[in-house]
């Protein structure tokens, strides 16, 4: 089983059942929950280079005028086509490293940005890359992928979902929302 398959298996056993228990429906990676005046949405967004994902949430208000509805598309989409990506205001879970949940080996390095500031840089090292990977002298292993890691990440997702539910409660009524910026 690949690391991705192990991570998806852990999410389907530990995270998705709790979403369903809390009235969400859908299939990976998009989940929805309908309330009286809104639809709450969640997406598992895969890192384009692999080995990680993050979770973004949002809410739309389909019965409201466009400026209060929290979706930005030019034309209203059918409710079947609306996703978190269609919204102005979103919330992203913190992740474990730099906003992402990595399920690989992770190396951290401090690189000078200027002479006064530094930033943390995380490098994901997956199964294939780890065979030939030699960290440089500035890199430190901060996460080792093992069979326990997938369960640990799923538990952390469930822990961070508390902040998602708080965000949904905060935005449970229509408000004029500015376009989301990262």
Tell me the Rg in angstroms. 19 Å
Which structural class is indicated by helix and strand composition? alpha+beta
From the N-terminal CA to the C-terminal CA, the straight-line distance is: 34 Å
- What proportion of the residues is helical, as a percent range? 25-40%
- Largest sheet, described in full? 6 strands, antiparallel
How would you explain this protein's 3D organization?
A hairpin with a 4-residue loop joins strand 2 and strand 3 (39-46). Helix 1 crosses helix 5. The longest helix has 22 residues, at 149-170. Strands 1, 2, 3, 4, 5 and 6 form a 6-stranded antiparallel sheet that branches. Strands 8-7-9 form a 3-stranded antiparallel sheet. It has a domain at 3-97 and 145-170. The chain starts with a helix and ends in a 12-residue tail after the last helix. It has 5 helices and 9 strands. By secondary structure, the protein is an alpha+beta fold.
């Amino acid at each position: 089983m690949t690391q991705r398959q192990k991570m998806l298996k852990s999410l389907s056993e530990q995270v998705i059942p709790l979403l369903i228990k809390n009235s969400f429906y859908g299939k990976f990676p998009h989940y929805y929950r309908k309330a009286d005046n809104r639809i709450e949405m969640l997406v598992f967004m895969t890192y384009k280079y692999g080995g990680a994902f993050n979770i973004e949430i949002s809410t739309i208000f389909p019965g409201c005028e466009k400026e209060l509805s929290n979706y930005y598309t030019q034309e209203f989409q059918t409710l079947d086509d609306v996703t978190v990506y269609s919204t102005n205001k979103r919330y992203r879970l913190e992740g474990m490293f730099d906003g992402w949940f990595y399920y690989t080996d992770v190396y951290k390095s401090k690189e000078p940005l200027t002479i006064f500031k530094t930033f943390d840089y995380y490098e994901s090292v997956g199964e294939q890359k780890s065979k030939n990977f030699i960290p440089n002298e500035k890199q430190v292993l901060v996460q080792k992928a093992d069979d326990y890691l997938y369960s640990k990440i799923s538990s952390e997702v469930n822990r961070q979902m508390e902040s998602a539910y708080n965000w949904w409660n905060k935005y449970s009524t229509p408000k004029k929302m500015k376009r989301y910026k990262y």
